[in-house]
């Protein structure tokens, strides 16, 4: 893939994860989301 498409994909993924963090107020879920993003990045 082109670097631009990869960057756009990561930005959209990060935005989705941040939205999930905002919706869920549970620290355990937020930690799982952060760990999932760190693994995938």
Strand content: under 5%
Percentage of residues in helical conformation: over 70%
* Structural category: mainly alpha
Overall outline: elongated
Query: Spans with pLDDT under 50 lasting ≥5 residues?
Result: none
Main beta-sheet strand count, sense and barrel state: none
Distinct helical segment count: 2
Distance between the termini: 15 Å
Q: Tally the beta strands.
A: 0
What attributes characterize this protein structure?
85% helix, 41 residues, single chain, mainly alpha, elongated, signal
Describe, in plain words, how this protein is organized in 3D.
This protein is an all-alpha fold. It has one domain. Helix content is 85%, strand content 0%. It has two helices and no strands. The mean pLDDT is 77.
Concise description?
The chain has 41 residues and is mostly helical. Helices cover 85% and strands 0% of the residues.
Q: How do the strands and helices of this protein lay out in sequence?
A:
Elements: H1 3-23, H2 27-40
Helix pairs in contact: 1-2
